[in-house]
């Protein structure tokens, strides 16, 4: 899998995702990502910084076009902490924690995002509006309820399985409840 192949697959997948989903302006998009899985190895066994940089550098301009912020999930060695811009963490009231991602403690995606972000910080918990998982890293814990899977034609990037999520507010109430504001 070349950088061009990764970029093409990722761009196609994200364009299909955003054809189906509209996340709120200034919303939060979470990326779970294993460069090892993209390369055909078990998660954490073949981390590849070039793959991380290709993914992050492809993803950021697409998210910017949709007025979205990126949070990158780290690996288990930093307890799945999330890297994002300090301004986003501050605006959302997230508690910042102390760790700097490394290739084998955070992962290639976090290291690439750390380099690409203006003022990166780590937080332990977020509530994202949607996201993408490359390599079955389990991003669901970071996406608000109710989560909705989104299908694209891109089932894998390299050897890594892809999954997309969006979300919607919970529908609460009983038989008399309605879920859309009536026309005025």
The number of helical runs is: 5
Classified in CATH, the superfamily is: Hypothetical protein TT1679
Gap between N and C termini = 54 Å
When the domains are counted, the total is 1
Number of strands: 9
* Top-tier CATH class: Alpha Beta
Low-confidence stretches: none
Q: Say what the CATH topology is.
A: Rossmann fold
The CATH architecture can be named as 3-Layer(aba) Sandwich
What is the helical fraction, as a range of percent? 25-40%
In terms of DSSP E residues, the strand content is 15-25%
Organism: Secundilactobacillus silagei JCM 19001
Protein name: UPF0340 protein IWT126_00731
InterPro entries: Antibiotic_NAT-like, DUF436
Family: Belongs to the UPF0340 family.
């Amino acid at each position: 899998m070349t950088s061009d192949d990764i970029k093409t697959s990722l761009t196609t997948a994200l364009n299909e995702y955003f054809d189906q989903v509209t996340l709120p302006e200034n919303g939060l998009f979470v990326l779970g990502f294993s460069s090892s899985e993209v390369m055909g190895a078990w998660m954490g066994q073949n981390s590849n910084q070039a793959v991380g940089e290709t993914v992050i550098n492809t993803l950021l301009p697409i998210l910017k076009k949709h007025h979205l912020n990126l949070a990158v999930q780290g690996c288990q060695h930093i307890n799945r902490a999330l890297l994002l811009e300090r301004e986003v963490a501050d605006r959302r009231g997230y508690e910042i924690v102390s760790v700097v991602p490394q290739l084998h403690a955070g992962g290639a995606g976090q290291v690439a995002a750390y380099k690409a972000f203006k003022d990166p910080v780590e937080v332990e918990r977020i509530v994202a509006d949607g996201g993408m998982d490359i390599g079955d890293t389990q991003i669901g814990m970071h996406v608000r309820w109710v989560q909705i899977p989104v299908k694209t034609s891109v089932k894998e990037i390299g050897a890594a399985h892809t999954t997309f999520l969006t979300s919607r507010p919970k529908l609460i109430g009983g038989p008399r409840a309605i879920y859309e504001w009536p026309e005025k």
